[in-house]
Amino acid sequence: MITFPHLLIHQNIFFMRSKFQLAVLSCISALLFSACSAPEAKPVDLEKIKPDIQAMEDAFAAAEKAKDAAGVAAYYSQDAISYSRNEEPVSGNAAIKENIAKRLAKDTTGNYNVYKVVDLIAEGNMVVEIGSWTVLNPSGAKVDNGHYMSVFQKRDGKYVCVRDMNVSSNPPKPTM
User: Fold this and answer.
1) What is the pLDDT of residue 102?
2) In DSSP terms, which residues pair with 149 in a beta bridge?
3) pLDDT tens string 71-108
4) What share of the chain is helix, strand, coil (3-state, %, to 5)?
5) Cα distance between residue 154 and residue 125, in whole Å
6) Per the CB 3.0–4.6 Å rule, which of 36, 77, 158, 159 could disulfide with 152?
7) 108-157, pLDDT tens digit by residue?
8) How confident is the model at residue 4, as a pLDDT?
9) Domain covering 46-168 assigned CATH 3.10.450.50 in the classification
10) For the chain, how long is the longest CA-to-CA vector?
């Protein structure tokens, strides 16, 4: 025969077991969620990255000056998008290379570009560069200048540009 005190003892054991199961389930859930969360990104050493990014900008400028569209396009990832002044965005390395080749073929001025890293922002495998550009004529006189922003992603151990855009600091020249 089951008495009331006996029933209370079994009820307490049931509730204690439920509380214990709930506590175990909570601990397991907490462990799973913490294991699935993204690891904290290591701080990026901007002083180490800055010379690498500047070297990429210098190689870009040298390839432009040599009218080497493939050398300029090496700056970009295969899935890059480039936003240039007064043009629609160009998607993909092949299309960017073709666009650069057309621009270089039309240029008969002998002008060349100089690019300078102004600021970097980085986290994880991404770097955002804010830079300045200057167009110089063959005698070294400034023709135009402005700013650009490039977004780099580290792929296979090296940075490649996945997005870029630029603007002139000067008003547009009137067309005739």
Assistant:
1) 96
2) 130, 165
3) 999 999 999 999 998 889 999 999 999 999 999 999 99
4) 40, 35, 25
5) 5
6) 159
7) 999 999 999 999 999 999 999 999 999 999 999 999 999 999 999 999 99
8) 54
9) yes
10) 110
Q: Scan for tokens 């990429």, then name that residue.
A: 56
Q: Sign of torsion, CA 150 153 158 161?
A: negative
How confident is the model over 37-80, as pLDDT tens digits?
555 667 788 999 999 999 999 999 999 999 999 999 999 999 99
CA distances from 79 to 14, 36, 49, 90, 123 (A): 60, 29, 22, 10, 20
Whether this model's pTM surpasses 0.85:
no
- Beta partners for 116? 132
- Is the pLDDT at 25 greater than 60? The verdict is no
3-state secondary structure of 59: helix
Residue ranges per structural domain of the chain: 1-37, 46-168
Evaluated on CA atoms 33, 38, 42, 43, the torsion sign reads negative
Residue with tokens 């922003």: 149
Q: Are strands 76-83 and 158-168 parallel, antiparallel or unpaired?
A: parallel
Whose tokens are 């270089």? That residue is 104
| Three-class SS state of 85 | coil
- The tokens describing 94, both together, are 């092949």
In whole angstroms, how far apart are CA 150 and each of 8, 15, 33, 92, 165?
71, 61, 35, 15, 7
